[in-house]
């Protein structure tokens, strides 16, 4: 089953609508969607290594635009939409602690969330809720998300075929590693907040 999922992702990644799907996932992941864009980014770069920088750019732009939607949810629709999203991620009871954490770390906290598996949408919503400086939020989001996506894509470009062989030979291990990182981000969210 895992092999079929991998084959499907590789065919989707090589398809003509892959860039649009990548942009949609990147956009929604920054505001509410639980699956990170790496699920599409990695197979897309592996399938077409020469387009690594285009895919990283799509991810970065779409993710930053989605981050503004997350910010707007926090600033304008926190009660109606923001709280249910935060409840889904188990972060609704940590609001006061998170506000004090923001006062101490500010942009550095957003930057860390932007480059790690930490659920970025939680930070975008909180940023809007607490009225974090929008210009600083934009700058940190561009740098952090750009660093993350360009680093992942660049490494896949540089080490493409060996990476592809490694993934295909150790698909089960890669799936477990990916799930561990994804779950680790949610666990970090629970314990840090």
Average pLDDT level: 78
Count of discrete alpha- or pi-helical segments spanning 4 or more residues: 11
Query: What gross morphology would you assign?
Result: elongated
Q: Which oligomeric state applies? A: single chain
Beta-strand content estimate = under 5%
Overall SS class? mainly alpha
The biggest beta sheet, please? none
Q: How widely separated are the two ends?
A: 36 Å
Overall tally of structural domains: 1
Question: Helicity level, as a percent range?
Answer: over 70%
Low-confidence stretches: none
Order of helices and strands: HHHHHHHHHHH
Radius of gyration: 17 Å
Counting DSSP E segments of at least 2 residues, the number of strands comes to 0
What is the topology?
Layout: H1 2-14, H2 18-29, H3 38-47, H4 52-76, H5 78-88, H6 95-105, H7 107-115, H8 120-130, H9 134-158, H10 160-169, H11 171-192
Give a brief rundown of this model.
The chain is mainly alpha-helical and 193 residues long. Helix content is 82%, strand content 0%.
Structure description:
The chain has 193 residues and is mainly alpha-helical. The chain has one domain (2-192). It has eleven helices and no strands. It has helices at 2-14, 18-29, 38-47, 52-76, 78-88, 95-105, 107-115, 120-130, 134-158, 160-169, 171-192. Helix 2 (18-29) runs parallel beside helix 4 (52-76) and helix 4 (52-76) packs across helix 8. The chain is elongated and about 45 Å long. The model has no long low-confidence stretch (mean pLDDT 78).
